[in-house]
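Sample intake sheet
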Amino acid sequence: MFTFKENLQEGEVNKEKIETNRVVNLDSSVSPEFLKDIKSFYEDCLQNSEKYTRTKVNADNLTEKIEGEQGFYVRVLDTINKAIKENEGKEVVVFFDIDETLTQNKFFKDGGGNSFKTILRPSALKLLKAIRLGNIRVGFLTSRGNVLEDLEDQLKPLNLLINKECVLSSCSVPISEEESDKMWNEREELNKSLPREKQFSYSNADNQKIKILNEFLTKRENSLIIPVPVDDYKNPLFYKYGVSLSEKEKFDI
């Protein structure tokens, strides 16, 4: 059985240094063994639902959760491949949001009380390893405030897979009224170009993430970077290779 404990420890036991040449195409296929792991994870959530509070996994949405996990894995890698193919001579860098994208925080019933745990989505380690083995840098674009500290604690399974120079926190990023108005106008222009069913709204958290990523990209040493932001929010829609997760692809257990 694919348990939460095993899920969190897998990255900790793998201490080898990732050092390979960039590949031109990342394999986005889902093997039968990998699919079995995904199914085991969500079945474990369902069968042990009494262990933690407010579970979102039930018999009615189990298949959707499994399909969404596969879709997340495949879409991220296919997007990276597209970005590499279309940008020869430039560097593709992937920026992941954390909460509800790669992880979720849950309260587990433990004896007479509750314990707080960070759960890693079942495809996260395999996905990040596949990207890093292609010699592609991976960072965070998150509203968390103490990300580097978290990588030594609740996010430790991901520590060796993250390029620390690409960790961006939008926590407390100031947005002026002028900047906010400009961003809202850009959103409206983007919406006008989309069919009604694909139009969207977004939050100030999206504004903050867009601002800090754009500031990172305007630095001289980053001028050749092609960003692939991956988030359960809407900010990736403002980037050519952004991956804004669908409701089905979000990690919500």
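Comment: Residues 4-15+25-244 form one domain. The chain has seven helices and seven strands.
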